[in-house]
Write a structure and sequence with these properties.
This protein has 493 residues and is α+β, with helices and mostly antiparallel strands. Helix content is 26%, strand content 17%. A hairpin with a 5-residue loop joins strand 3 and strand 4.
Length: 493
């Protein structure tokens, strides 16, 4: 009997072998592509982590003046090929706990550090992100392998450029730091630290980014700019706390004694008219009714004293205060009939905010910013002691000698007989502060001890006569004074 299957067309052993080989090759190719996609995905995850960390650390550094890192990391053998010549400082493990709203793909060994691992144990960990203290370059110690290469950061060759969030050169597009989302600390390249209000940015431009040259900040909402007035901590020889108001006052007056004024007539005290009688806080036994009166700057006794104490505390606690870079400015020119009280600007190219009484100037200053918006900073007129502190700051930080501040400022003040717009001429700028020695006299919260002219203006004016052309000058004004010669400047404290 013939075999029925002899002539059947089935799969031969050779065909089957070839098919199996093809399937294996295809499977290997698919597996390789899958693994390759996974590796590329892993690399992308690391790059995203580092980009996220860099952004968070930039904001943290802007607010705190230091990188978020405590534990040093010295096991750098894997990173020798990628560490740049500028990474001269030590490396530290990034303190992930200090960075808010952070989500990462890698870096889980940080949890072991939180559990209290020793320095030796920390150097044995690799699933970590570390940062160089000099350049702020970030590396993933374990690295991510793609084919035959291992990547440790988001660039492929040793970095040749420093990433320092403070030292930005003039050609940089990063003119301002990120906006502070809460009150924070900025440290300049000289290690001078200042307190920056919430909602503000610090200027990165050379000549504007250090305390010694006149540090500039900007309100990110209004673009108004301010200058930091440093008061060295060593000034406080008697005061022991921020509520030691009397001794803070004495220490500040001793520090600025040269600019205090003649015969002790000018004081930062509350005053008001009770009918035809001038009363001050130095008067014994002020009645409740007298304390409820408003003074020449529109403040009751309690309001004035609270504001003055707040100023003392702020200067003691923060080591200084901010003043507007420019005299108060507005968009429309004023005249003697102007009765509105628009919010002032601290910007160049504005009409000078004149024809305003001291009380309205204080109210307009208060409108600039609230403590809730700025993280406990308030906007107001300056007290007399603050004006003197600016004079002392100019003496300490500029090339001006005392004579040019306290006797004759005509070589840098605007006394040319013409009222100018704000910031109109670089000649009238010193430490990035414009027109502090002239243009218009500026209202303060100081008292003059003159019954008829109890309110005090400072700084001289564009029409000042001989003997009044100097930065620290004082003028006695009627509380209802409202002329083209008198304006004001906002302070933050």
């Amino acid at each position: 009997m013939k075999n029925k299957f002899a002539n059947s067309k089935g799969i031969t052993l050779v065909s089957l072998s070839i098919t199996v080989v093809i399937i294996i090759l295809i499977s290997n190719m698919l597996l390789y592509n899958l693994m390759d996609n996974i590796r590329v995905g892993n690399l992308k995850n690391m790059q995203n982590d580092i980009s996220n960390l860099r952004e968070k650390i930039s904001s943290y550094y802007a607010q705190n003046g230091e990188i978020p890192a405590k534990n040093q990391y010295t096991n750098l053998s894997n990173l020798t090929s990628i560490i740049g010549v500028l990474d001269t400082g030590d490396f530290y493990v990034i303190d992930l706990k200090a960075l808010e709203n952070l989500t990462l793909n890698y870096g889980r060994d940080y949890e072991k550090i939180q559990q209290g691992w020793s320095q030796t144990q920390i150097n044995g960990l690799t699933d970590l992100y570390i940062i160089n203290e000099t350049t702020h370059n970030i590396f993933y110690v374990k690295g991510v392998r793609v084919d035959d290469e291992i990547f440790y950061t988001d660039y492929e060759e040793a970095d040749k450029d420093t990433v320092d969030f403070n030292l930005i050169n003039e050609s940089s597009m990063m003119k301002w730091t990120p906006t502070y989302d809460k009150k924070g600390i900025y440290k300049d390249k000289n290690n001078d630290c200042v307190v920056v209000p919430k909602g503000f940015q610090v200027c990165n431009e050379l000549g504007k980014n250090t305390v010694n040259e006149g540090l500039v900040i900007k309100n990110s909402q209004t673009n108004d700019t301010y200058i930091w007035i440093e008061v060295p901590k060593g000034v406080f020889q008697r005061a022991t706390s921020k509520t030691d108001y009397e001794n803070i006052k004495i220490d500040l007056e001793n520090y600025t004694d040269f600019y205090k004024g003649k015969y002790d007539l000018y004081k930062d005290i509350w005053y008001a008219m009770d009918g035809s009688t001038l009363v001050t806080e130095n008067t014994n036994n002020l009645t409740a009714g007298q304390k409820g009166l408003t003074n020449g700057c529109g403040l009751s006794y309690d309001q004035y004293v609270a504001l003055r104490n707040s100023m003392y505390s702020s200067i003691y606690d923060n080591g200084g205060f901010w003043i507007a870079q420019y005299e108060a400015g507005i968009g429309n020119q004023r005249n003697s009939n102007s009765n509105t009280r628009p919010t002032p600007f601290s910007q160049t190219g504005k009409y000078t905010y004149n024809y305003i009484t001291c009380a309205d100037a204080e109210m307009a200053s208060q409108d600039v910013i609230s403590d809730a918006e700025s993280g406990d900073f308030k906007s107001n007129l300056m007290f007399g002691i603050q004006w003197d502190l600016v004079c002392k700051f100019i003496e300490n930080k500029s090339d001006k000698i005392r004579y040019e501040i306290n006797e004759d400022s005509s070589n840098w003040g605007s006394y040319g007989g013409t009222l100018r717009t704000t910031g109109s001429n670089e000649q009238y700028k010193l430490l990035n502060i414009y027109d502090f020695a002239g243009n218009v006299k500026e209202w303060t919260l100081e008292y003059t001890a003159n019954t008829e002219n109890a309110s005090c203006t400072r700084g001289g004016c564009f029409n000042s006569g001989e003997g009044q052309k100097y930065c620290s000058s004082r003028s006695q004004e009627n509380i209802d004074e409202k002329t083209q010669y008198t304006g004001f400047r906002v302070a933050l404290y």
